[in-house]
Amino acid sequence: MGSLTLGIETSCDETAVAVVADGRRVLSDVVASQVDLHRLYGGVFPELASRRHLEAILPVAEEALRRAGVTPGDLALVAVTRGPGLVGSLLVGISAAKALSFAWGLPLVGVHHLVGHIYANFLDGPPPEWPAVCLVVSGGHTDLLHVDEGGAVTCLGRTRDDAAGEAFDKVARLLGLPYPGGPALEALARGAEPGGVTFPRALLEPGTYDFSFSGLKTAVAVYLERERAAGREPPLASVAAAFQQAVVEVLTVKAVGAAVALGVPRLLLGGGVAANRALREALAAAAQEAGIELRVPPPRYCTDNAAMIACAGYYAWREGRADGADLDAAARLPLADILPAGRG
Ligand code: KG4
Ligand code: ZN
Hints:
Blueprint: E1 4-9, E2 14-21, E3 25-33, H1 35-39, H2 46-68, E4 75-83, H3 87-104, E5 108-112, H4 113-119, E6 132-137, E7 142-147, E8 153-158, H5 164-174, H6 181-189, H7 214-229, H8 236-262, E9 266-270, H9 277-290, E10 293-295, H10 299-302, H11 307-318
Parallel strand pairs: 1-4, 4-5, 6-9, 9-10
Antiparallel strand pairs: 1-2, 2-3, 6-7, 7-8
Helix pairs in contact: 2-3, 4-11, 5-6, 5-7, 5-8, 6-8, 8-9
The structure holds 5'-O-[(R)-(carboxyoxy)(hydroxy)phosphoryl]adenosine and zinc ion.
């Protein structure tokens, strides 16, 4: 059966536990979403999130073992998200991971959530290969990263204001769509054309790999207000399509541009927004044209899950990393600390 990793992820509003063999073969991947709870508030309500994690974590872990058909005695290690994220939520996963690893006599490895999103690319697929440029686009992050041959990571650029997923969520709200807005906005935009609607692309000053999405969100708000003030009903599907196109174009130009400029032969995508089909298609076309290999996780591994945490934790463990009982939650966490040199 190989080395089995139990992965645990509770950084935001998903309680997730997975069992992964040899770092990449997913035996089970259980995600208990709290979306229905937080929809009432139009976003994640941190206190309620940690309470719900506390109720869900052990049943979800039992379900993950059951679906994988394994017992605790079969496991080799426990991997858990240590940050960044909501501290109260992270603490639930970390406490559970500590208790289980102690009770079962297993090593414990803390994983950076964004590193998890990068490692989602290797689940049920070929092993890690570096160097790579990685674009992580989630509700909290829009980071363009470079991983060198040895696995050391540097940040090429990041958003200066809203994350890409946050922009999707906020614009979805303006369009009257439910939380989380990304999938709802994509569905509304599907099959629609921007028509005459266009929004600005914030490419910022030449040479920067930073992003900015708050101006785009404001442009959508202003457009909707202006149309309504003029007594016109705005074409919501076209607005959604035009907004999505603006986000996709900026992400694509910068990510593929970085790989080309740095002479890096591959581009990895990760994070919830990576589930967006328009983004996947645009990146695939641009990467192909530039002769760059593009890896994109299946949509279910783009949004938060514990299989990606198990994968990253396994490779870190193979590099000799392990954490002790002092492992703590970190709302913010620098990336360079964590990324293991994922060799084969
Ligand atoms: O990675 P993730 O599950 O959680 C965070 O770590 O933030 O990402 C969630 C974000 C939300 O903002 C959600 O609206 C966005 O990813 N998202 C999408 C899509 N699916 C999820 N955005 C655009 N298109 C999608 N299909
Ligand atoms: Zn995430």
